[in-house]
């Protein structure tokens, strides 16, 4: 019998290597990524059985990445392996497509059990989080915009994350494959929508609402 195929994503290389060491004997590791955009490209092409990913990743956060991958690979399942125990992040992850949620402190002891559950069609949440799956409203998965405080569009959230990570408008345009003028338009629209006036305020908002990593 062929092994289940996993795709791993985390911006910390030591964590990626640790996950590979834990899983390579029982699963096929078909790819790895260290940012959300590489994850979307790789997983959308390879269509793994399951993606293990963090919420906080550069260029595109894990929740946005999962939603994009679901469009091209609806059968792929997602297990978030993350430090965040905040209930809003957990709800947003499941609304974005997660089937499992493992806190990093417990990954060595829980990850195999989590994958067994998820790949069998069940939901897994680290017991230490003390969350009942019935709290997550899994029957009506949506775009997880509640985490972000305002109903920004997907493109606006992408621009907001990149700007908040310190990318210039030219860099953002290159990454997204659009014109600088388009980036200017989106940035101005985001500021109007959120009632913010500066890039510093955008960055504070993005970090506070989980759109970009706090260490960016």
Rg estimate, integer Å: 17 Å
Beta percentage is 5-15%
Number of helices: 9
Into how many domains do the coordinates divide? 2
Structural class designation: alpha/beta
Helix content: 40-55%
CATH topology of the largest domain: Rossmann fold
Description:
The chain is an alpha/beta fold. α3 links the parallel β3 and β4. The chain has 2 domains: 140 residues, 3-Layer(aba) Sandwich (Rossmann fold); 60 residues, Winged helix-like DNA-binding domain superfamily/Winged helix DNA-binding domain (Arc Repressor Mutant, subunit A), CATH 1.10.10.10. The longest helix is centred in the last third of the chain and has 15 residues. The chain is globular and about 55 Å long. The model has no long low-confidence stretch (mean pLDDT 89). The chain contains 9 helices and 6 strands; from the N terminus they run βαβαβαβαβαβαααα. α6 packs across α8. Strands 2-1-3-4-5-6 form a 6-stranded parallel β-sheet, sandwiched between helices.
């Amino acid at each position: 019998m062929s092994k289940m195929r996993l795709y791993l994503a985390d911006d910390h290389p030591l964590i990626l290597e640790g996950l590979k060491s834990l899983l390579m004997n029982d699963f096929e590791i078909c790819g790895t990524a260290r940012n959300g955009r590489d994850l979307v490209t790789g997983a959308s092409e390879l269509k793994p059985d399951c993606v293990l990913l963090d919420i906080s990743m550069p260029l595109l956060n894990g929740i946005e990445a999962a939603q994009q991958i679901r469009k091209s690979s609806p059968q792929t399942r997602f297990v978030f392996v993350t430090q965040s125990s905040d209930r809003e992040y957990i709800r947003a992850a499941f609304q974005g497509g997660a089937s499992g949620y493992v806190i990093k402190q417990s990954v060595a002891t829980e990850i195999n059990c989590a994958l067994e559950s998820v790949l069998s069609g069940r939901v897994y949440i680290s017991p230490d989080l003390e969350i009942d799956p019935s709290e997550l409203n899994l029957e009506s998965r949506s775009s997880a915009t509640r985490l972000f405080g305002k109903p920004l569009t997907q493109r606006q959230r992408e621009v907001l994350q990149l700007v908040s990570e310190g990318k210039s408008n030219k860099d953002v345009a290159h990454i997204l494959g659009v014109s600088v003028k388009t980036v200017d338009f989106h940035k101005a629209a985001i500021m109007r929508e959120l009632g913010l006036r500066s890039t510093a305020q955008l960055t504070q908002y993005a970090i506070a609402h989980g759109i970009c990593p706090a260490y960016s």
